[in-house]
Design goal:
Blueprint: E1 2-6, H1 11-22, E2 29-33, E3 42-45, E4 48-51, H2 55-60, E5 65-68, H3 72-84, E6 88-91, E7 103-104, H4 107-110, E8 120-122, H5 126-142, E9 144-153, H6 160-170, H7 201-213, E10 220-227, E11 234-242, H8 248-256, E12 261-263, H9 275-278, E13 284-291, E14 298-305, H10 309-325
Parallel strand pairs: 1-2, 1-5, 5-6, 6-8, 7-8, 9-10, 12-13
Antiparallel strand pairs: 3-4, 9-11, 11-14, 13-14
Helix pairs in contact: 1-10, 5-7, 5-10
């Protein structure tokens, strides 16, 4: 399997390589791809040094799979060029997610929609992935009506510059700003850019992507996305109104039996999900489950996951694993 990692020098690209190695993805030839300014750099994969190549060189090499994490503009321009030479692209940007002709996939939920004809496959937004992982089994059982989600998102979701800004501020060093305001000891209700309706792009991704992944538009989601000074892991406060009533013990049992979910829900022992615990793990952690006492059939819960792993790299690699296992590439 000839595999290209596009955006290999970036934050998600680095994690992508780590995940590919950990999961022993079957690679006969690895192409590490980045922008022109990174061409010629050396990166190590499984103890072997690789030289970073440019996008055109990678296309000409006709890889079987190309996993992209290089931003939307790069994906819009280059993913079709890879697809033209027969490569199956798994794209981590927002470029193709809401394209009606492209599949938006969380493998545990809807990998079965994939076919050999799918040459560009979209990886959902990091916050969306952990949200639908927890919501999907509950929706199947009780039928969601409305979801209200507030996110508490790590600076690593913005990239290296944002992590550097937070670390510089913590040490009292003046440096380049990834955000319009300080992030250390602060919370910014501002993830991605603002749109005409007053929501940010991140909030609209959370509203729209779950409906596409679950192939169901009978429920609605409204979101507020907030950036907080943590370095690894997104958290979400989620309020779900169901059409049918639920039993809390049954909810815990359903989530306990869902692959990829870990329930941490014992307030008496101060057991609940936290980014510091989810860091560098692939599971989605769910806790603080309790009834909303203000209206019927409504559940409150707290969801945490590592945004660079299950929220990005791991999900993309899982899609690639499914393609290989089912002989779709």
């Amino acid at each position: 399997m000839k595999v290209a990692v596009v955006g290999a020098t970036g934050m998600v690209g680095e994690v992508m390589l780590k995940v590919l190695a950990e999961r022993n993805f079957p690679i006969s030839e690895l192409l590490l791809v980045a922008s022109e300014r990174s061409v010629g750099k050396k990166l190590t994969y499984k103890g072997e040094e690789h030289t970073v190549i440019g996008l055109q060189t990678a296309v000409e090499s006709k890889p079987d799979i190309a996993i992209f994490s290089a931003g939307g503009d790069t994906s819009l321009k280059w993913a079709p060029k890879f697809a033209e030479v027969g490569t199956t692209v798994v794209d981590n940007s927002s470029a193709w997610r809401m394209d009606p002709d492209k599949k938006l996939v969380v493998p545990e939920i809807n990998a079965n929609v994939l076919s050999k004809e799918d040459k560009i496959i979209a990886n959902p937004n990091c916050s969306t992935i952990q949200l639908v992982m927890a919501l999907n089994p509950l929706h199947k059982k009780y039928g969601m009506k409305r979801v209200i989600v507030s996110t508490y998102q790590s600076v690593s979701g913005t990239g290296v510059k944002a992590v550097e800004q937070m670390e510089n501020e913590a040490q009292g060093i003046k440096g380049e700003m990834a955000y319009p305001y300080p992030i250390n000891k602060n919370a910014l209700p501002h993830c991605d850019v603002f749109m005409e309706n007053g929501y940010t792009k991140e909030e609209m991704k959370l509203a729209r992507e779950p409906q596409k992944i679950l192939d169901d538009r009978t429920f609605s989601i409204t979101a507020t996305a907030v950036r907080i000074p943590t370095a690894g892991g997104h958290s979400e406060s989620v309020n779900v109104e169901f059409r049918n009533d639920f039993d809390l013990n049954e909810v815990r049992e359903i989530l306990n039996n869902t692959p990829g979910i870990v329930v941490q829900d014992n307030p008496a022992a101060n057991s609940y999900p936290m980014p510091i615990y989810a860091h560098d793990k692939d599971e989605v952690f769910v806790g603080r489950m309790r009834r909303d006492e203000t209206q019927p059939n409504t559940l409150n819960m707290w969801i945490v996951a590592d945004n660079l792993r299950k929220g990005a790299a791991t999900n993309a690699v899982q899609i690639a694993e499914y393609l290989v296992a089912n002989k779709l590439v």
